Structure formats: C-alpha cells, structure tokens
Amino acid sequence: xxxxxxxHGYVLETARHAYAVGLTPEKELALxxxxxxxxxxxxxxxxxxxxGWASFxxxxxxxxxxxPTYRGGSFNEPCLKTTFSDGVRDTWLTFQxxxxxxxxxxxxxxxxxxHYPLRVYVVYRLLADxxxxxxxxxxxxxxxxxxxxxxxxxxxxxxxxxxRYELVHFTGRWxxxxxxxxxxLPRGVTRLDSKRGxxxxxxxxxxxxxxxxxxxxHGDCWFATLEHSGNWALLAEHTDFDxxxxxxxxxxxxxxxxxxxxxxxxxxSVFLGWAEGGFQDASxxxxxLARRNVPHPQQVRPxxxxxxxxxxxDVDADSQMRYAEVAxxxxxxxxxxxxxxxxxxxxxxxxxxxxxPDPRKFPHGLTPLIDHVKALGMQxxxxxxxxxxxxxxxxxxxxxxxxxxxxxxxxxxxxxxLVLNLxxxxxxxxxxxxxxxxLSEHDIAFVKWDMNRSLTEVGWDGAxxxxxxxxxxxxxxxxxxxxxxRFPAVLWQACSGGGGRADLGILRYADQVWxxxxxxxxxxxxxxxxxxxxxxxxxxxxxxTDMGWESMPLSFRFHVSMCGNLGVGANITRWGAAQKAAAxxxxxxxxxxxxxxxxxxxxxxxxxxxxxxxALHFVSADQRECALFVFRAHSPEPAHPYYVTxxxxxxxxxxxxxxxxxxxxxxxxxSVPLRFxxxxxxSRLYTLKAQYxxxxxxx
Length: 699
Ligand code: DGJ
Description:
Elements (H helix, E strand, L loop, with lengths): L2 E4 L2 E5 L3 E7 L5 E8 L22 H4 L17 E4 L9 E9 L4 E8 L4 E10 L4 E10 L5 E13 L6 E6 L7 E6 L3 E6 L12 E5 L10 E6 L5 E7 L5 E7 L6 E3 L4 E3 L3 E6 L2 H16 L10 E3 L1 H4 L5 H14 L3 E4 L29 H9 L3 E6 L3 E2 L4 H5 L19 E2 L5 H17 L4 E4 L18 H19 L4 E4 L17 E3 L6 H14 L5 E5 L9 H8 L3 E4 L8 H23 L1 E4 L8 E7 L5 E8 L9 E3 L9 E4 L4 E4 H6 L2 E3 L5 E9 L9
Parallel strand pairs: 21-22, 21-30, 22-23, 23-26, 26-27, 27-28, 28-29, 29-30
Antiparallel strand pairs: 1-2, 2-3, 3-4, 5-10, 6-7, 7-8, 8-9, 9-19, 9-20, 10-17, 10-18, 11-12, 11-14, 13-16, 14-15, 15-20, 16-17, 24-25, 31-32, 32-33, 33-38, 34-37, 35-36, 35-38
Helix pairs in contact: 4-5, 7-8, 9-10, 10-11
C-alpha cells in the first residue's frame, strides 16, 4: 500500500521514492522526508523540532510547511492568503483529519481555520509507476459571509537543505520560444510567471532544480509542472537559512477569488518529481504524464499539410484543391486549411467571430473542398480561433459587450482583434453551439485551435472582478472539453501564435501543439530539444516549410521535422519533380519509423554548440527498434567531430543498423561511440533493429 500511516504522520511511497509529511505541535503540515524509498516504515524520520532564531525568526518561519498560509511570524512566501469579511487577513489552519482512498492512491488532509469557517483540503495523489506526486488543494467557505482569497497556490515543496541549486527553465517570446535557461538560484525569491491569460511564450509553467553537476544522464534534479493554461506563477525562495521553498499555482498578480458562502475553489494540479538519473530520467516520466493527458494517446499522428506559410489568407476552394492534389502526391494524409476561409477574412482586420465559409471564396461551402480532399485519400482539417473577434465582424456588431473591456477605457486591439470574454457562460454557450454546427455539418477530422494575442482590459462585472483570469481559462476548457466530448474522433492542435499556450493543461484537450511560428530548421533544433525535455514527441507538430530552403537540403529540413509529428507547410505547388520525389521518399521513410518516434522513448544527446551538433534518438516501446538522428547546423570552421552512443536498448539483444553496416549488442551500442564528421546542414537518420526470431543471434 503506497500511502502509509506511522506514528509521525504519513508516508507516500512510489516505485522508488518516498515523501513523508507530519504535523507540527500546532497541527500544521510540514515535510519530514523526500528521497529514496527506505526499507522500513521506522526508517522515516519524525519532523524535527524547529527552534527559532532570535526574536526575529520564530519556529514557524523555519518550518518546512507543506501549505503555508499568511499568518503570524512566518515571513516566507505563503501558499494561501485570505481576507475575511471583518478585515482579518491572518489564516491559521489546523489539522482535522485524513482521508486515504487507496483505489485512487490519494491522501487528503483536512485543515480548518481556528476561528473562521474556512476549510482547506490538501490533496496528494501518487502516480506510483512514474514516481510522481500530484498536488492540489480545495478551499471551501463553510460560513455565511464571503471570504476573499488573494493567493491560492496549488502546493509548496522543499528541496534538500544546504544544497547548491540551479534553476532550469524555459523562456522566449513570439518566434523565439523554448529557450532553456540554466542559472544558479539566487538568495531571495525568484518568480517566473505569466500575466497574459495564457501560459505564454515568455516563461513556461514547469521547472527543474538541479545540482551544478547534473547532466542529461547523471545527477539529481527536482522538477515540477503545472496543469494550467492561464496566468500562473512559480516562486522559488532561497532563504537566508539556506533552504529552498518552491510553490506554484494560479498567479496571484491581479488575482482575487471571492468564495461565496458554501462555495469552493479547486486549484490546478502540480506534478512533482525527483530524478536521480539526470534530466533524461525526469523527462521520460514527464512524457508518460503528458501521454496520459492527451485525448488520443495511442492514435498514429497523420502526416499533414498546411498552406498557411505558402498562401497566408489567400485561400479559396480551387487553389486549396490544387494544394491538396500535390499534397496527396507526396503521401500527405491530412490536409488542413488554415486562416482565411471564413466570412470577410481577406486579411487580419476582419472576420474573426464569423465561423461560416466566405461565400466569395467558397461559393458552395466547404463541402466540395472536403470531398475533393477525401477523394484524394486524405482527411480534412480546419483552423479556428474561437476566443477572438475582429471589430469588423458580424459577431462584434451584434455583441460588442462580449469582448473583454472596461467601459471607461479604450479597447486595445492586437493583430486587429479583441478577445471574447470566455469567462461569460453566454459566450461559452455561443461558441459551443457555433462550433458544434461547424463540426456537425462538415467532415472534419482535425481542428487547429489558435489564439493570437494576450488578454488586456480584463473587465468583469462579477462580484469579484479579478476572478476573470481564472474564469476565462475555465471557460476555454469548458468550450473545448464540450466539443471534444461531442466529437471524440477529432484530433486537436493547440496553437497560440506559435507556442504561447503549449502546456500540460492544454494537453488534456489538444493532441498536439505548435511550438513556434519560426520553422527555420536550425532554430527549431534547440526549440524541439528543449520542448522534448517536458513533452513527448507525439505532441510536437513540426512542419517542413520554405524557411531555410536556400541553404539547407530538403533531407536536413525533413529530418528536423521527423523528430515529432511530421507536417509540410511549404509552397509545394512550386516544387519541381525532383523535389517532390525526394519529399515523397522522406515522407515514406517517416511513415516507416513514426511508431518509433511518436510512441517511443526519447534520448537526447548533449548538443555541441561549438560544432553546431544536435542528436537524439527514439527507442520503440518494445525496445526492438531505434531511430537515431544527428544534425550539424552551421558553425564556422574548423569543424570537429561529434560522438554519439545509443543508450536505452536491451543490453543483450543485437541491433543492426543497415545503413552503417554495424550489428552489435545493445550494451555495445551504449558503450562504443559513433563518430560523426558532418558538414554544415548535413543530417543523418539511422534505424536500428533488433534481430529476433525466437532468440537473439548474430547474422
Ligand atoms: C498563428 C499560427 O501560429 C500560424 O500557424 C497561423 O495559423 C496563423 N496564426 C494564422 O492566422
């Protein structure tokens, strides 16, 4: 049984790890132990007695609380901050009881405020096989008067004291997402967050805390990821007592949540882990977590074509049919029509909100195009941006009040568009019905859900105006979740002007995400490398476009995109016969290995920025097959070699790479390096196959 009770509290055991919590003399919850699973229950230490430090720092300031509130003499960052109706802002939660639900691997601890009718359930759920712990809280108001929450984070956790830590996280901006940062964790509070209404291009709601010597394959790291697609915050507090307290959850910036009498708030979940085998160990468990989330975890992702980069808004039935014909010739399986298809949409200043085909471009609706695409043997997909409205649209003319705004302020347009207030149930209902009609009337197998700006002027006339941020994200989830349930066969792509909303929360609704509008392959290599630290390859949509065509061979550009769900976004109607033939071969090659890539385990190799090298390999779920990619982006001479070993194979099985003429055991592939001397923009793809016909043998 993984949730154990001992004399000092509770011990949560996963496959290899344990997390023990206990109660302070004041009946508050604190961390006793987080580390390797110990042989006996008696091995887990009790909560130490925390002494104060002079009159300025009482024991409550030094105790590693699991869900600290703003109260008394605790001056660290709290998880919960409230204002009661009489103006008191001190919240003191004391333990009441524990509920263990074995079937759900869940431990729920109930805490009540000592005086006010505020109740908090602190929930731990074990993902035992993945050595991960899910954490969230439910905050309830059991009284008659409202209680305002000014901060309600999901969890706090503590790194082993006196360690030296580096914070590894992901930053960026539009067209430049997924840059990894690794920097020493300074004293004080380091805050990462989003204030944009989406998880954002700028910081990503996940982080690793690693020792300075931790590498891809060796060393400890602690990691966390938040299942939320709206405003979020991570606070990493390196205290003056050389401890590190980290908390994460809904951003408390411009946040307030009014808990009416009898109401409750359930926070988003944080997933926590400790990895001993470097970032790779953490990543593979995070991949398994994300694979649980996506709507169609096992479904093979089709090779798609999308003409956005070739045509922009210039789409109509005839020209899209021409693109579809070439796409089918290449072996594409899914033809996606992007922006520009709906009423009035000749540019980005009109049309958003009016989700009916433009009669000038599609005089007989979308069906003739869809039929043509299907007759060519492909499925059809469509782009939408449901959260947005152009002032020049029928929807806005009918419902100007539906856009987020303050009546006394100008409405900020970005890309000429405003944001619909998805916090409003009537807006949600309208979108559900409009998109239900669109999806019912057409044979649509794939939907790309885009979102091309941040939220501004977030007016809301509810009793607590600042709830709008949270309600907006819940509204997105409700609309998307309802459509997903109504159209269970549809595959969904999340896009937000590239990678503005590519997070664990959205992966409960979307099968795959768009990393960036930057499709230049050498920029994609680091982005993909970093994205794959958190999310599995079958969630990564990657197009071959015309970016880089002057300098990079087609094979290099394809190989980069073959490290995820391959798509094509180039102007294929301009491709000559030789280019089409090469693309057809590369697409066929991808189809032969995509089960390894999409469903396999990912092994990233340390890039060599000096030589411009990147490499990664994928090992199939049954460990019988492997696809190895090696790239050299441009880097000035002198070139130098790059060495790759192929880890993750069955040590005793023998694997053959025909292209290399090598057959050796999995142990040998992991130990004997391959040497690469590539030219700029050269790439290699090798497949390794285990020889197996009852028993492994040489041949
Ligand atoms: C931004 C997306 O990232 C692009 O792929 C494309 O869909 C455009 N929006 C369309 O407006």
